[in-house]
Amino acid sequence: MPSDTDQLVRQIHETATRLVLVVTGGGSRAIADLLETPGGSRTLLEAVVPYHPAVIETWLGNRPEEFCSAATARALAMAAFFRARKFEPPPAPVAGVACTAALATDRPRRGAHRAHLAVQTADRTAAWSLTLLKDRRSRAEEERLVGELLLGAVADACGISDWPAPELLEGENVETYRTAAPQPWQDLLLGKAELLCRGPAFSVPPAIFPGAFNPLHVGHRRMVQVAREILKRPVAMELSILNVDKPPLDYWDMERRIAQFPAEHPLYLTRAATFAEKSRLFPGATFIVGADTLHRIAQPVYYGGNREACLAAVQQIAARGCRFLVFGRKLGAAFVRLGDLELPDPLRALCREVPPYVFREDVSSTDLRKNEKG
User: 95-104 as b/e, with b when 16 or more CB fall inside 10 Å?
Assistant: First the structure.
């Protein structure tokens, strides 16, 4: 092992931070570097190499839009962070570190050779992305380079800011970004708070528009306008950092999505992944939903496959005085509205439809993200 690498690893092992490391597609040399220098057990709680797509899906709870992307690296780092917290409860400093790469292989690769790395701690999200010039290095050389970059990310997770940068070719550049979280965001992520509010206070309960808003688009804005007119009450957006089948939102994503809303627009950040939880935070609210979201509320798969649990959740929502204002959505080739859905009667009784002649916008955040990627 080169002396500078050995020295860096020794510095890492001297810190109090312990971490879970997830590596897929490349960069696994960093695991060997951390273990070849004595003291690895002081740093690594676990190091895993999930290569098969189904194994990566198990880590994430769902299938990512891309397996090698900055978003997937951050999601893996978040999953690793929460796994680390299971083994090292507070106040021990822990981190999740992840790398997802697409490097030279034994067949021509259509896309770019690239690597995305991420670090998640209680107070920050950091990420690095590198596109390598094709056909300029062997697989072993690309592995070595990404391993060096990953070892630097581990050092960063441990609070070591001065670590050697890998040698790059002319035209290559490591894109770096990080988000330091204010204390209220940290409290929300760690479960010390369950709701944050940005914006004005209300004299009457607002209608609540839950969503991922990734990104916010014209359809969302029109739904807010129509809901105000129909319900005769203000509308507040709600962004839950938790999801039933995904890792929590990281701080970079939180910052980016919040920035889409004007400062004067009411916005709630919550940990309410389900509508039963949302109804507890917002009793008496009318929730603004698309037909696709309403359909998911009625699916037992989101309640551990238990139909009784699904019906119990609907009963909780009703008991708290909550209702749904339902907008039609284009799903595939069909436009789906409230009457097209198979719903349990207790849930249907809580619903009011916005007819297509009042609102129809055939736009989705998923399509916008795909178009953005070209």
Answer: bbbbbbbbbb
Statement: residue 86 has pLDDT above 90 = yes
Residue entry with tokens 């002396």: 3
Nearest to 123 by CA among 178, 44, 163: 178
Give the pairing type, strands 351-354 and 323-327.
parallel
Give the Cα separation of 67 and 78 in Å (integer): 15
Lowest average pLDDT, out of 227-236, 284-293, 295-304, goes to: 295-304
Strand ranges (E), 166-251 = 174-180, 195-198, 207-210, 235-240
pLDDT in the model for residue 1: 44
Looking at domain 3-180, which of 2.60.40.420, 1.20.140.10, 3.90.950.20, 3.90.78.10 is its CATH number?
Answer: 3.90.950.20
Q: How far apart are CA 315 and CA 250, in angstroms?
A: 32
- pLDDT for 118: 98
pLDDT band of residue 317 (cuts 50, 70, 90) is very high
The predicted pLDDT at position 224 comes to: 96
Stretch 356-368: mean pLDDT:
89
Strands 124-132 and 174-180: antiparallel
Helices (H) and strands (E) in the chain, counts: 14, 15
CATH class of residue range 185-372: alpha beta
Contact between 122 and 79 (Cβ < 8 Å): no
Where in the sequence of the chain do the CATH 3.40.50 domains occur? 185-372
